[in-house]
Amino acid sequence: MGAPFLPADLVAMMDKGVSVIVASRDLALRPSVMRAVGSSVADEGRSITVFVSRRQCRQLIQDVATNGHVAVVFSEPSTHRSVQVKATRATLRSAVADDQPVLARYLASMEREIGRVGHAPALTRAMLAHRLEDLVAISFEPEQAFDQTPGPRAGTPLGGGDA
């Protein structure tokens, strides 16, 4: 399974480190949502890991742990180019020291991305501040993907998958 249906240019945008919003839902379908503080996209988009703060995302983490459902939006701040990926079998683990390079790369990219819209790196560092021991990694293989760039194609399923 996985995401061979994600176009290479979207995978590249997601992988470089752009704004990432993570959502799930509880069994009563009440949503939970939070900004990720890091992400990693591997295997041509077939494997994605996003990092969230345990302290700030208790409900989101509980929801993913309970049902495995996750929806993640990757959005390039300077263009609003966006893609949403969904999965039903996400897994959780605590972040470890080996995740530090991924988190540092993400922060550097977001400093550039947010800088393109006129904000200083200090804003990005504050927005993405974290302690490694507080982070939870949510990993999944996308099962569905949607163009979420504002405009007439927003919400359009990307080919393949179960979309």
From the structure above, extract its key features.
163 residues, alpha+beta, Pnp Oxidase, Chain A, five-stranded antiparallel beta sheet, four-stranded antiparallel beta sheet, 4 helices, 9 strands, 26% helix, 31% strand, globular
Walk me through this protein's architecture.
This protein is α+β, with helices and mostly antiparallel strands and about 160 residues long. The chain has one domain (about 10-145): Electron Transport, Fmn-binding Protein, Chain A (Pnp Oxidase, Chain A, Roll). The chain has helices spanning about 10-15, 60-65, 100-115, 120-125; strands at about 20-25, 30-35, 40, 45-55, 70-75, 80-85, 90-95, 135-140, 145. The strands form two sheets. The protein has a five-stranded antiparallel sheet. Helix 3 (about 100-115) packs across helix 4. The longest helix is centred in the middle third of the chain and has 17 residues, at about 100-115. The two termini are about 15 Å apart. The mean pLDDT is about 90.
Task: Give me the secondary-structure topology.
Layout: H1 8-16, E1 19-25, E2 31-35, E3 38-42, E4 47-53, H2 58-67, E5 70-75, E6 82-87, E7 91-94, H3 100-116, H4 121-127, E8 135-140, E9 144-147
Antiparallel strand pairs: 1-2, 1-5, 3-4, 4-8, 5-6, 6-9, 7-8
